[in-house]
Specification:
alpha/beta, 3-stranded parallel β-sheet, 2 helices, 30% helix, flat
Length: 76
């Protein structure tokens, strides 16, 4: 079964926070044997940056199980 853990960090989102959360999310993806995907490029620049989460729809087509987690989340 193919799995993906996806997060979004466009427009250099909160680098002071992401320096902690991104490695944590990468570690969790490794633990559950999922590919970690970090969306950094904008495909919908005319809309609010939150709409970039819609990119997950296309990413999910390549995986059996896809989870989106906000970049300001950490797993414990």
């Amino acid at each position: 079964m193919s799995k993906a853990l996806v997060t979004l960090t466009v427009n250099d989102y909160r680098p002071e926070l992401c320096k902690y959360t991104i490695p944590n999310l990468e570690g969790y993806a490794d633990k559950v044997r999922a590919k970690f995907i970090r969306i950094t490029d904008r495909k919908f620049p005319e809309w609010h940056p939150a709409y970039e989460k819609m990119q997950v729809f296309e990413i999910a087509k390549d995986y059996d199980f896809t989870v989106f987690v906000d970049a300001d989340i950490m797993f414990h």
